[in-house]
Specification:
Bound molecules: NADP nicotinamide-adenine-dinucleotide phosphate
Strand content: 5-15%
Radius of gyration: 24 Å
Distance between the termini: 75 Å
Number of domains: 3
Number of strands: 9
Oligomer: single chain
Largest sheet: 6 strands, parallel
């Protein structure tokens, strides 16, 4: 064997040490530790193991992990609701939905229920777009980990030909985009690619992400190439390891290559999300308080309290789980957006309950008060952000028709 090992385990230890220090600093500053919610649907043993490993690493790094385990028979709608609750939960900084979910579930819909600001596993469209446009955002965890591993060994990327085998939305596709953003020349291969052996043989860098054990033959590897094997089936990767290691300059082992880097990236991104979450909260709480209160009282709360209290408050305070209630609420909400002449962007943020966007879009802040009536957790979050009140105080103030805000 001639190749140097790309030792994901060793590199991840260094990253996790840094994460641990960052968690300690965060806790000292904010009086809490970052929190990651992991969602597991069903009881696939491999997925259960991955979630357990992630929770163990969280514990070692000092990150709080909340495990949410859901029955395999859950519907897409129920899963989406549960993830939306986590998205609105102020106690959660990051959300990981373990892939894959059972076949009957629309995984894309479930991923999109993750608030992009909490998408520490980089699975939402928003995160994907950020990767595609080379903008700030959360990296898909495995591709982000692969890039960090290549960087740890100073593997040059500009002008090199990278061949990515696999094009899944969470792995093949984003890793190709990240390599492209670093000026590699990227070729994607997939199950319909003709001449896979020839494509791989042209590669300076091979990323194997097909989930087909030993698909990539050692003899295909160009001498001196870099081989990154993301495949994982038992302890076997997508590359014929021994044979490839005879020809490659660098190679990842399986296990101990890409896997540990994925978890390290997830945890590093969770700390980043927690910091951003904290910044949003503190930014929102102080400067907008007085102004938001006035707007809320003048524009909406008193109006609501005076004319519609019995009707609307009771209805709006109803549970989100009541679909009919929620549908009527959203119709009302759309009418209000129109009546107040909100922009299409503001309207969209409100109707989709995109908290981050609402906080960013000036002039719509009072709507967040109204939306805060949707459920207790949102109430707690927004009550905390804008008023410093507890959920109960905030709810009582809302019930009193907003007069306590005066
Ligand atoms: P996936 O969604 O099943 O995608 C597999 C991709 O490989 C597809 O794009 C597929 O092509 C392509 N492919 C399948 N057979 C092929 C063949 N014979 N020749 C060329 N391409 C082929 O899988 P995934 O979720 O991306 O995962 C891929 C592998 O990475 C799995 O082994 C998984 O366990 C592993 N993984 C590891 C980590 C980690 O942390 N280490 C994380 C995630 C995944 P089509 O698009 O044409 O179907």
């Amino acid at each position: 064997m001639t190749a140097q090992i790309l030792d994901g385990r060793a590199v991840s230890v260094a990253i996790l040490d840094r994460v641990r220090r960052e968690v300690d600093e965060f806790a000292a500053e904010h009086g809490r530790v970052p929190a990651l919610a992991t969602v597991l649907v069903g009881d696939d043993p491999a997925s259960r193991t991955y979630v357990r490993m992630k929770a163990n690493r969280c514990a070692k790094a000092g990150i709080d992990s909340h495990r949410v385990e859901l029955d395999a028979a859950i519907t897409t709608g129920e899963l989406v609701s549960r993830i939306r609750e986590l998205s609105a939960d102020p106690a959660v900084d990051g959300i990981l939905l373990q892939h894959p979910v059972p076949d009957h579930i629309d995984e894309r819909a479930a991923f999109e229920a993750i608030e992009p600001a909490k998408d520490v596993d980089g699975v939402t469209r928003a995160s994907f777009a950020a990767m595609a446009f080379d903008e700030d955002g959360f990296r898909s965890a495995t591709p982000g980990g692969i890039m960090a591993l290549l960087d740890a060994y100073d593997i040059p990327l500009p002008g090199r030909h990278a061949v990515v085998v696999g094009r899944s939305p969470i792995l093949g596709r984003p890793v190709g985009m990240l390599l492209l953003a670093r000026d590699a020349t990227v070729t994607y291969c997939h199950s319909r690619t003709a001449g896979l052996a020839e494509r791989v043989a042209e590669a300076d860098i091979v990323v194997a992400a097909a989930g087909r054990p030993r698909l990539i033959r050692g003899e295909w590897i160009r001498p001196g190439a870099v081989v990154v094997d993301a495949g994982y089936a038992g302890n076997t990767g997508d590359v014929e390891y021994e044979e490839a290691a005879e020809r490659a300059a660098f190679i990842t082992p399986v296990p101990g290559g890409v896997g540990p880097m994925t978890i390290a990236t997830l945890l590093a991104q969770t700390v980043r999300a927690a910091r951003a979450h904290q910044t949003r909260r503190s930014r929102g709480a102080v400067p907008v308080r007085g102004e938001a209160m006035t707007k809320a009282r003048d524009n909406y709360l008193l109006d609501l309290a005076a004319s519609r209290q019995g009707y609307a408050l009771n209805r709006l305070c109803g549970s989100l789980k009541d679909e009919e209630n929620r549908r009527r609420f959203l119709e009302d909400e759309a009418a209000y957006c129109d009546a107040y002449g909100l922009s299409a962007e503001q309207r969209k943020a409100i109707l989709e309950r995109d908290w981050t966007a609402m906080l960013e879009l000036g002039g719509s802040i009072f709507y967040t008060f109204k939306l805060a009536m949707l459920d207790k957790k949102s109430m707690q979050y927004l009550g905390g952000v804008f008023t410093g009140m507890s959920a109960e105080e905030f709810a009582a103030a809302m019930r009193s028709g907003g007069r306590k805000f005066g």
